[in-house]
Fold this protein.
Amino acid sequence: MSIMIKLSLKHSWYGLIGLVGLVPALIILVLVVIKLHAAFLESALLKETRFNEVAAIHVENEVSRLITILNHESDPIAYTLRRNKDKHLLNDLLRSIMRRAESINTLLILDTAGRIISSFDRYGPDRFIENYQWILSNELVPDKLSATFVIPMHGRTYIGPTTHYAGLQLFDIAVPIGPPDQPTGVLMAKVDATVLWQTLEQRLLRPGVITYLVDRRGSILTPHADMKYDVGHLATHLDIIRAQLAGSGWKVERTYPGVSGKTVFGTVSSIPIVNWGVISEVPQQQITKDIYYVLFKITAITIGVISIFTFLGLALVKRIINPVELLSSDFKRPGNRDFSQSRVVSSIKELQSLTDGFNRMVSDISKNEQQLNKLSLAVEQSPITVVITDIKGNIEYVNPMFTRMTGYTNEEAAGQNPKILKSGKHKPEFYKQLWDTISSGKKWRGEFYNKKKNGEFYWENASISPLTNKEGDITHFIALKEDITERKKSEETILEMAYHDPLTGLPNRALLTDRLNHLLARGKRSKILAAILFLDLDNFKNINDSLGHAEGDNLLKEATERLKRHTRSCDTLARHGGDEFIILIEDLKRIDNIHKVVEHIFSEFKEPFVLNGQVCFVTTSIGISIYPDDGEDVSTLLKNADIAMYRAKEEGKNTYHLYEPAMNERAIEIIKIKSLLHTAIDNKELILHYQPEVNIFTGEIIGLEALVRWQNPERGLIYPGTFIPLAEDTGLIVPIGEWVLQTACAQNKAWQGKGLKPVKMAVNLSLRQLVQKDFPGMVKRILKESGLDPEYLELEVTESTVMGDIESNIEVLCELKSLGITIAIDDFGTGYSSFEYLKRMPIDMLKIGMPFVRDIIENPDDAAIATSIIQVAHIMKLEVIAEGVETIEQYRLLRNLQCDNMQGFLVSKPQPASIGVEEFLIKGWRFSDSRIQEVTLPLSS
């Protein structure tokens, strides 16, 4: 249960004095105290820091002094070494250095080979052997020259790291002896860091402060009476030492447990010459006790001053509060429609003026209330949205229609900017133009795409006008808005239907043409390259015929998604109609880039399509025209791309072709051939040639392959490579295939009727025939009409034909197999079937494709493929026949590979029934290696 506390004016004033006077003053006091504390602390620590820096300078000066002493004596030593290497004189020189530098523990003179010439130990000659052993352990002997020896030999001074040895903290100073460009040796001093510090410590001592040295590893080098640690202790657990080693800097105001175990402030200064640090630790209490005393006195004085001013403020406020309380009660009356005059009298001029103003106000309110009620009713009941904002655009009023439309109540919208309705769909320039218009005193009209409180988007038509006062200054803005969402949806639906394909959602031919026209208009102003890719799905009609139009639609949708993956946002992918797609590539940098796009598209179509649970392989043929080379208008560019696509179809499908001018002539030729082909069957212009198939070991004829030819009166003999693709494209392949099957079966039966040896008749099937409704029934009817036993009929299908719709095609082949017909897979190895599907097919024979046989002698890969096909076929108990055998070498290799049968020009070219083939069967001829010339010449005539 919430409790609302209402304060009187009197208590509010008292509270205000507290909040405005006392509380800020106390806050300021606290802040000042904190600031002063920080300033005093910073001053004290700065003093310590400066002292620490002086200590570092002293240490650095002392090390520099040692280097100067060593360099000064290096020349006499060099002179002695060159002259006679008098060890007594060298020892005198080393003693001279020792007398001038108490911190040096040991001196060594090394020659250019790193051998020790002379040495001097401050604590007696018997320690020399120990030092020599120490040198060995630190790799300073000639066979392992270290930096201590190598660097001085290059004419530079070397200062080594600190080493803990025999209770001492030693570091090396090595200087070159003789000329810097060609030193004659090295003078090395081992300096005791503790003794070095003792020479400086007396001038650095301060009561209560611990000052000590650390080396580059964080080891303590100098002692102090208040330390908990011995010299040589590794004190990297101390925060200040870790910071010094990491080079990360140290904030002097930080405290930490120091080497004495007490909480201290620390300062650190680096000594670059030896890579040490000087650390001074001051007890926290020693720094802060004087600061706290000063701050206490300042706080006491300030609180006294605040108390005096607070008392005076309360006395003054009391004279103001009483009349204000009475006047406040008068202000409650207009809310209850009581417009009587106030009777408050005050000696304070401003309060009396406020009373007079109140009386005038209630008089004006009474007069205007009726007029305001009329206007309010009109706005409240308006069927359109009304929004009033101040000059900054903050909402002051919205009518009920606004609430119904947007979901925001008047209370929620008040004080907000209309930006609460922004959908994010309009650009900043749109709002800037609106604001510039109304700010200049003009009316703005337009449409918004806004968002309701619940996140729903909507369209509204708006009119925004500035409201001005008597002087003409803008004081408010009023917006009158109407919901037009339904109208917009209708317009968008109409536009979508007009310019997009309803199945795939892609731009249709109309939108494609519009974008092409825009491209061409832009191309006339500036030189640009563009490409049109005309795509047609290969064998799409077979999918429709075998699986139905619903699965055909699913194929088109999936193909659309695959094509989208390789279409840039600046390009256009459109459905041109049926199974044809157009890709418009704008701003083409180079024509060579087209090849990459096409390869990406072909890679998408290598993956199978799964339609109604069945795996289908569908490829695409692509024709390409380039703007402006191949046309400067829409119809020409599309026509030429279409022509190039048909050229790709002619070249075996699943490929692409760029348009060439000569293709127009080819396209006209194709149209003529298609026209003539329609009457070829009726005019009995089709004929069959037969090519023998022989056993590769016995030479015996095992069968004949029926091959269709077109004997046109105008054009002569036309081979199947010219007209069969056109027949498949037009659908004429179905009646042609039926004629071929009828004729071949009848011919085989006629030869048997003459008493000739019965052989199998091989007939090729197209995909259109295979997916034809009740194709097995048609084959059964033809066998019955011709009287041919099914065992003498062999139907050949290419593996790419079967893989189009694997499951359905396997089912048809099983029906054909059940009739007793032999089934063969033609051109095996040129498609993309797998042995998983191969073992499910009801087949009896594999025919090795001609491309593998043609180069089987020269190409080891083709020989390997042929070998694999033969081996797998025999494992699956299938016969193998090789097509296109033309040379004796091919024949012998295939025989060695255990291929069962062969056909090709080596045996015979395809021949008409009445010339060579019948004679071939009558004689009962057998093929053999020794009779090749005798056999092939007559049959090839």
Q: What stands out?
A: The chain has a mean pLDDT of 80.
